Input
Amino acid sequence: MNTSTAYDIIISKCRDLFVKKAADYGTAWRIMRLPSVTDQIFIKAQRIRTIEENKFAKIPDDIPSEYIGIINYCIIAMIQLELPADTEENLPIEKVKELYDRYINETKELMLSKNHDYGEAWRDLRIGSLTDLILMKIFRVKQIEDNSGLTLASEGVKANYQDMLNYSVFALIKLRHLEEEQVPNI
Output
């Protein structure tokens, strides 16, 4: 399956969960400041790494669900970058869908451009390397946040959230492929 199609399948599941949670909880996450969103992404990525290293988990959320969480928290982060933060304003579901789709479309376009230039090198990476790249991007974002958003030569935080989102999609594509390989043809 080509990357664009696989990407769309993964994102469809992520978006569906995001919209359902918005229907259940509203947009309670609007109260979160950006560093708190970054820390939530860190928690999910660190849990993935711990499970990868220990080979088991004590709570039922599996690795794919944690990558989905990273994807959706990256969308939250990009929304929080645009809209005034630290507010209890509940966004209507249609606005949530519109913002989700806009940031996914921008992020997918970035992925397609990078895949063109890098020749889909991500396909040769190990899943653990994708996790490590996400953690590295988190530490970059934390450093930028600690510097009050000021950078001398680096891309801003949005580009890092987009990269984390794309690395998570790549990991989910690779996990899905591994799962398909393990199911015998009947």
